[in-house]
Amino acid sequence: MINMDTEKDYGEAHLNPLQRQNMRIFIEATKSLMDSVGEEGLSIRKIAAKAGYNSATIYNYFQDLDELMLFGSVSFFRDVFQKVLEGRTDDMTWKDRYIYFFRSLASVSFRKPKAFYNMFYVPTVKSWDVLCGSILTSSIPKNSMALMPVLPR
Predict the structure, then answer these.
(1) Cα 90 from chain centre
(2) How far is it, in rounded angstroms, from Cα 68 to Cα 63?
(3) What is the pLDDT of residues 2-51, one digit of tens each?
(4) What long-range pairs does 112-116 form, CB within 8 A, spacing at least 24?
(5) 65: helix, coil or strand?
(6) What is the DSSP secondary structure assignment for residue 151, as one 8-state letter?
(7) What is the percentage of the chain residues whose pLDDT exceeds 70?
(8) Which of these, 13, 10, 8, lies nearest to 24 by C-alpha position?
(9) How many other C-beta atoms can be found within 10 angstroms of the C-beta atom of residue 72?
(10) Axis-axis angle for helices 44-51, 65-76 (nearest 10)
């Protein structure tokens, strides 16, 4: 299971560009396999093969398969941010914006229920700041960072 209190720091400060790139490659391979074979068919070996690396290399970046699936799940929610940004208008009230955000979240969540579960119910995730401020921030559209306060902590 994921333990955010360990010595691992997912901020980008300690990662060089190659390490950041490798992490993203593993996350994208995980996301792709989650789409094609589902979480039940996922394994470290399949992810490594898809990414073009040895399976042992993954453990330099992620603690285990659960942690990798969590990062893969987080990246699915880029669709939520895109949908909210595309559909929001300046004349919407805050209530309308909130309802629109909720509907966008629900739309993605119903299409990807396991990703939703991983995001909001994995009991070992202790810090949203770590996930939202991590390497995954680069997968969220730059102009959607203002939406971050809407996410639960």
Answers:
(1) 28
(2) 8
(3) 333 343 444 445 678 898 899 989 999 999 998 899 888 899 999 999 99
(4) 112/73, 112/76, 114/34, 114/38, 114/39, 114/73, 115/34, 115/72, 115/73, 115/76, 115/77, 116/73
(5) helix
(6) S
(7) 69
(8) 10
(9) 26
(10) 60
Neighbours of 129 (CB within 10 A): 12
Length, in residues, of the chain: 153
CA distance 31 to 15: 21
The token pair at 116 is 């939703």
Q: Counting beta carbons within 10 angstroms of the beta carbon of residue 144, is it exposed (0 to 12), middle (13 to 18) or buried (19 or more)?
A: middle
- Over residues 89-109, the pLDDT tens digits come to 888 888 988 898 888 888 888
pLDDT interval class at 68 (50, 70, 90): confident
Provide the H-helix boundaries in the chain: 17-36, 44-51, 55-58, 65-76, 78-87, 94-111, 113-121, 128-132
Sign of the dihedral defined by the CA atoms of residues 111, 128, 70, 12, in that order = positive
Structure tokens at 101: 């955000």
Angle CA(137)–CA(152)–CA(9) in degrees, nearest 5?
45
